[in-house]
Amino acid sequence: MEVPILKQGHYLIASIQSALTDADLSQLREALIERVGRFRARGVIVDVTALDVMDSFAVRTLRDIAHMARLRGAETVIVGIQPEVAFAMVQLGLTLKGVSTALDLEEGLAFLDRQAQLRIERGSGRIDRG
Amino acid sequence: MADELLIPIAADVDVVTARQRGRDLAAEAGFSSGDQTVIAAAISEIARNILNYAKRGEVALSVVANGDRQGIVIVARDQGPGIRDVSRALEDGYSTSGGLGLGLPGARRLMDDFDVSSSVGKGTTVTMKKWRRVNA
Lengths: 130, 136
What we know:
The complex is a heterodimer. Chain A is of the alpha/beta class. Chain A has four helices and five strands; from the N terminus they run ββαβαβαβα. Helices cover 47% and strands 17% of the residues of chain A. A five-stranded mixed sheet of chain A has the order 1-2-3-4-5, sandwiched between helices. Chain B is α+β, with helices and mostly antiparallel strands. Chain B has helices at 12-28, 33-54, 86-89, 103-110, and strands spanning 5-9, 57-66, 69-78, 113-119, 123-133.
């Protein structure tokens, strides 16, 4: 089951629709990292609302996506971790250390906008020459 | 012994099947949605271990009653290489497969009862149970 990736402005939004196999997760990682370059994206949102469980492989892959996207110049935010999924993650000892999270898609977009604003204020953002 | 649900594990899609069947069975047995997720996550970890270390095996699911408690029993068996040092394999962060090393110890934290029996060259069996109180 391939995860659809939408482009919205400077952001990529990957919206997971169902349970994913390890191969699906790896495929999502490759696709996102490739598209960060192709679309010159500055932000990536991975919506995990529909993910049935967040186990060690899923967490590792999401961490990899965030770190690899950052190396390519894009910020990642994971949105939609459900309460019971969060509970199971904590019990498993899984953390998303170094990875930004937000409650839902709306909060995730707001977070990326704030990050972009900060980069401009710091003068470290990429400069658009229209 | 109640009816057993047997799920062969030989590909990553089987890991998803096993955890989904486990979640369904837990729901039928009256576990809360939080517990269903916990059970599914534990199954996901041990089923993936079968794939990573033994290539193939099976996960057996069943429901048992014990006095005023009802439980879900998950048995993961393989005829793989076995675990040389079970107590180390139960430590956080210890992995021989390049993973996070949280699969086995994490699954143990998620479940109420957890037992690993393994012999090198013969295989590994992980038995884990989650209980819930049944009101009389």
